[in-house]
Amino acid sequence: MVFSSLFFTFAFLPITVILYYSLGKPLRNIVLLTASLFFYAWGEPVYVLLMCGSIMINYWIGTLLGRDSGGRRNRQLLLSISLIFNLGCLAYFKYFGMIISTITAMGGWNLQVGTPALPLGISFYTFQTLSYVIDVYREKIKPQKSLLLFALYITMFPQLVAGPIVHYADIESQLADRSMTLEKFYSGMRRFLCGLAKKMLLANNIGLLWSEVKAMPGTEISVLMAWAGIIAFTLQIYFDFSGYSDMAIGLGKMFGFRFKENFRYPYSSQSISEFWRRWHISLGSWFKEYVYIPLGGSRVGKWKLIGNLFVVWFLTGLWHGASWNFVVWGLYFGTLIYVEKSFLQKSMARWPKAVRHIYLLLLVVIGWVFFEFTNLTDGLSFLRIMFGVGDNALIDNQGMVKLKTYAVLYSVCIIAASPGPKKLALLFIRTHGNIYKLVVNVYYCVLMFWGAAYMVGSTYNPFIYFRF
């Protein structure tokens, strides 16, 4: 079940909201947990058992860690059990096929081994359970005594399958008790509609251009067409994932939860380091807190820093998918961040802002090529086309037609990906507060009906980050 579907928007969500608020406060968590399990089981009924097993084991380990205040070896053993179980499940379901294919390629064998289907959202809920157990082990938080509340933390459907990754400490108090007002609910609904519009109206439509370009034979793609296509993907993946995060944050607010922001206009950044402070914030903060800092962070020698960055960005790339192109993508950004930290940062400060921004966008767009092409050879071939290496035409009529067709959508996407509209809205509030309320209400009504119309007629509706 996806958020951008008619069943979710006009059946599952309204029924859940009605039951949640009509059955009274004592039953709200039960309603939300039941709805979350149903939401997950809708597409993968078998793997809901895996998730429930993970909940039971990690709840048990957390409880034992809370009781054992003395024995260090026992605590380390319990932590090890949790790490082996959680990472073992993730490795088997997500990376088993990659491991077998790599071994086969290296040994020259022809192994025919079936690979398991990837459980939806396993990367996200595995990281949440790991952060909970590690924080209990570190005695940063107390273990949750209620199995119901712990299960709700792991399974909560707004952020279950594609994040943001929620730390237990951030919502610990909200699990037991949370206040709710009509204004908060309305604010959450507005945020959900914004995310839905990003997904249905922007990501899906600009993504069609990239699908057309990617399906073309390499010999028929001009330099212009290659850049038009990969820029379309650059916009698609932002609106796809930030749209999902907006919907998750909005849904959470509708049920009284406050989730942290996951995106802060990353394409307005002026360095790779800043970009990664603004893109998929919850994942970046997870690796920083649980991998980078324990390794020593940046307060180490040159070679140790290189090693730390290699580990973090190798894992960041690998987290995104069971294919070596994701590892290359991660190490690509890790290398750029090291270059910036080591010597480029000081000189960049003297560059004009426009130059820094172009530098950031160019490197990010190149990075998305490694991300999107699972076959590295195909990705490198596409990069060669982008930079005019080969016999491909520089400009062709087909490319010009595509640009004219998508010109308005390109413009809307570029504006929507910047903080400009938000700044204008804040300015309008200060000068025309009363009119603003009316305009906003009309705006969200239009988004709702327009988004619903696209859900009815759209045949292209993938969530890119669902596969991670």
From TrEMBL:
Membrane topology according to the record: Multi-pass membrane protein
Name recorded for this polypeptide: MBOAT family protein
Membrane-crossing segments per the record: 48-65, 77-97, 117-134, 146-169, 189-209, 221-239, 310-333, 354-371, 407-429, 441-460
Family named by the database record: Belongs to the membrane-bound acyltransferase family.
Any matching Pfam family: MBOAT
Provenance organism: Desulfosporosinus fructosivorans
Keywords: Acyltransferase, Cell membrane, Membrane, Transferase, Transmembrane, Transmembrane helix
A Gene Ontology cellular-component term: plasma membrane
GO MF, one annotated term: acyltransferase activity
GO biological process: alginic acid biosynthetic process
Protein location: Cell membrane
UniProt xrefs under InterPro entries: Ac/AlaTfrase_AlgI/DltB, AlgI, MB_O-acyltransferase, MBOAT_fam
